[in-house]
Amino acid sequence: MLDLAPVLPIVVLENASDAVPVARALFNGGLPAIEVALRTPAAADCIRTIADELPQAVVGAGTVLSQTDVDTAVTAGARFLVSPGWTDRQLNAMKDSGLPFLPGVSTAAEVVGLLERDVNDMKFFPAEAAGGPEYLRALASPLPRARFCPTGGIGPATARAYLDLPNVRCVGGTWMLPQEAVGARDWARVEELARAAMAIARPDRSPHRA
Fold it and tell me: Closest Cα to residue 78, out of 105, 50, 54?
């Protein structure tokens, strides 16, 4: 799933009615994969609505912490799962779902633990606080099988530094969804920021439209 898109927008919404407009703006800006964080009561409805009304977008669930979260995400129609960290129980729940998943890591020991379990694709979180691009660069040689999607504190000024690393396939962030734009339902602004994010990642890539 790391190859779906070079930038993965992380969406936190209070109102399910905003889900499709946000997803459509991101999609039209060139970002087809969308992570909806399970941090609000509306999150499951947001996933369900996007899955039903904008099937060309690939919507997944983030902040997956438990079997209950996995069940909620699957029932809502999520197509991938993302967690900020992992335990054996939680990892087994994500594996058993049959969906692509990204368990979170922030240390070399956690990376090795996942590699021992034949999991090569991981979320690096919180990226900036945990060492940033230099830390991931240091992991590339001793742990070449590990592939990362860094998230946490990444913005337009730092995204390129991560994407240039050989062990990074995409980056996640919220910078294309500023609170003032979402609050004002300024979907044109969200689309503009999504387009700019895609330009950082792939300067030669033209966005599709929904």
Answer: 50
**Residues contacting residue 61 through CB under 8 Å, at least 6 positions apart:** 35, 36, 37, 38, 43, 47, 69, 72, 73, 76, 78, 80, 81, 82
Q: Which tokens in the block code for residue 115?
A: 């590699």
Q: How far apart are alpha carbons 92 and 113 in whole angstroms?
A: 13
205 secondary structure, DSSP code: P
d(CA 89, CA 139): 26
pLDDT in tens, 104-122: 999 999 999 999 999 999 9
pLDDT band at 139 (very low <50, low <70, confident <90, very high): very high
* Residue 101 neighbours by CB under 8 Å, 6+ apart: 1, 64, 80, 81, 82, 83, 94, 95
Q: Which of 125, 90, 87, 88 is nearest to 105 (CA)?
A: 125
Q: Which two tokens stand for residue 71?
A: 């069940």
153 contacts 126 by C-beta, under 8 angstroms: yes
Going by DSSP bridges, is the β-strand pair 7-11/104-105 parallel, antiparallel, or unpaired?
unpaired
Rounded Cα–Cα distance for residues 87 and 146 (Å):
18
Residues with active-site annotation: 35, 123
